[in-house]
Design a protein that fits this description.
Oligomer: single chain
Order of helices and strands: HHHHHHHHHHHHHHHH
Number of strands: 0
Structural class: mainly alpha
Radius of gyration: 23 Å
Strand content: under 5%
Largest sheet: none
Number of helices: 16
């Protein structure tokens, strides 16, 4: 068997750089494709919502298929790197085409263009995302080295997402400054900004492929959709967590899809995108700090159980949405006041990002004792599946809100680059936007609270008992 050497710092940084580029692309698409096609290009919100929902559901089912393709690949360059490079190159091209829709297109032609480019974007992104995460065992030792690299990559992915969150609207308005009016500014801005992101994405992946070598022929376990559903139906605790994940993530995605519209059409002002950037930057920072500081404080400092912390996080989110709703009806115009609800909403999201992984891990031991089968890979594949499903449902709900309230760039008369869009939107449309982005998430949080409290039975004490039972079972098997 090939002897592995310690992973070099160069390899670690190169792998992390790949995550930066990968999540820059993902965040640009996830956060702005609805806004670009619906608000900038004029595709109906209902059409875009249907496209996003269908594409995300298809993408969720496509993941296991790509896993099988990668597992069966054998080349002189390894199993993972060829797909990583092919997926990146094709995805970068599709990303640029997606945000460079011909201005001459309209009606059915534009809807078809949006559908084809977005679906192709999802397929090509899966082509590189699956091998990126699956290749870790092929060039790392198990234990600390593998855990350290995974943590580094996840952190780098967060950096990539944060970069897009902070700079996108500022960059779009700067790069599109040659446009004759506000709409043309954003058409040009998104086109050139997506090109810059695509080029950076390719450069990051090339560095990863150049400096990260597959040093073993590990077997890659693949998971079918059918196997995921069978494991879910046979593990009631996994079902409890999956439902909670759909609700919690769905609530956040509804708000994240609509917050851009809130700043443009409700909060208002000619420099609305500056306020949006400040809000998003603060929220992203709170999200990261909640994972690094707030969760450890609640867990280790206050010695709360994970189930109690989850209850606290759901209450935090509901409180944040309630405060946000009240604030939006007070006529306030100071973006820094919005940092108060943002702290509770994004802080809750940071905590939940850790807890959902912990809870899913607990259900693995539970399933092994209950069903005499350890479905570790199946359970964690399910997390990606349901998160994508939640994002698709949330995008559809957000699109319905935009359709019903007639919120669109095309509905606003504009003659120059500096437009206060909020002045052209009715108070009823603003109220509909505010309630959709707050009341529906509150309802989802309340449902999650009572669902989780009734269905999830794996307390800290029960988890410790299960771990002991699994250890005893392993010892018994080893002695046979």
């Amino acid at each position: 068997m090939e002897q592995k050497q310690a992973l070099s710092g160069r390899s670690k940084l190169s792998y992390g750089l790949g995550a930066v580029g990968k999540d820059m692309v993902y965040m640009l698409s996830a956060s702005y494709v609805l806004y670009y096609f619906q608000d900038v290009m004029g595709v109906s919100a209902l059409a875009m919502g249907t496209i996003l929902l269908a594409a995300r559901v298809f993408d969720a089912f496509n993941d296991p298929i790509m896993g099988v393709v990668v597992a069966k690949t054998r080349t002189r360059w390894g199993r993972f790197r060829p797909w990583l490079l092919i997926g990146t190159l094709t995805n970068a091209v599709i990303l640029f085409l997606m945000f460079a829709a011909p201005p001459s297109l309209d009606g059915g032609g534009l809807i078809a263009y949006a559908a084809v480019t977005y679906i192709l974007w999802g397929v090509t992104y899966t082509m590189m995302d699956i091998p990126y995460w699956s290749m870790i065992p092929a060039f790392t030792e198990g234990g600390r080295e593998r855990e350290s690299l995974t943590t580094l990559a996840r952190s780098c992915a967060g950096v990539g997402s944060a970069i897009i969150t902070i700079v996108t609207m500022l960059a779009v308005h700067a790069l599109g400054s040659g446009g004759a009016n506000a709409r043309e500014v954003e058409i040009l801005g998104f086109k050139w900004f997506s090109l810059i992101v695509a080029v950076l994405f390719v450069l990051c992946t090339v560095i990863t492929c150049r400096n990260v070598r597959e040093r073993s022929t590990v077997e890659m376990e693949t998971v079918s959709v059918g196997r995921m559903f069978r494991a879910l139906l046979q593990n009631d605790q996994a079902m409890a967590i999956v439902v909670a994940i759909v609700c919690v993530n769905g609530a956040l995605y509804i708000t994240s899809n609509l917050v851009l519209y809130f700043f443009k059409y409700d909060f208002g002002g000619t420099g609305w995108y500056n306020s949006y950037t400040l809000f998003s930057t603060f929220g992203g920072a709170v999200n990261i700090l909640a994972m690094m500081l707030l969760y450890p404080l609640l867990r280790n400092g206050l010695h709360l159980s994970n189930t109690r912390i989850f209850h606290v996080s759901l209450a935090m989110a509901a409180l944040g949405y309630a405060v946000l709703l009240v604030m939006t009806f007070t006529g306030m115009s100071n973006v820094f006041l919005l940092f108060v609800p943002a702290f509770f909403i994004y802080g809750s999201n940071g905590i939940n990002a850790i807890l959902t992984t912990v809870f899913l891990a607990n259900t693995v031991d539970y399933g092994e004792i209950k069903n005499a089968r350890r479905d570790e890979s199946v359970i964690f594949s399910m997390q990606t599946f349901v998160v994508k499903l939640a994002s698709g449902l949330a995008a559809f709900i957000a699109s319905l809100c935009l359709q019903l309230n007639r919120l669109s760039n095309a509905a606003v008369s504009e003659s120059d680059k500096l437009v206060d869009f909020s002045a052209a939107v009715s108070s009823g449309a603003k109220a509909g936007l505010r309630m959709t982005m707050t009341l529906i998430p509150i309802g989802m949080m309340v449902f999650s609270f009572f669902w989780f409290r009734k269905k999830y039975l794996l307390t800290d004490e029960r988890v410790a008992e299960l771990a002991a039972q699994v250890q005893a079972l392993r010892g018994k098997e080893a002695g046979q």
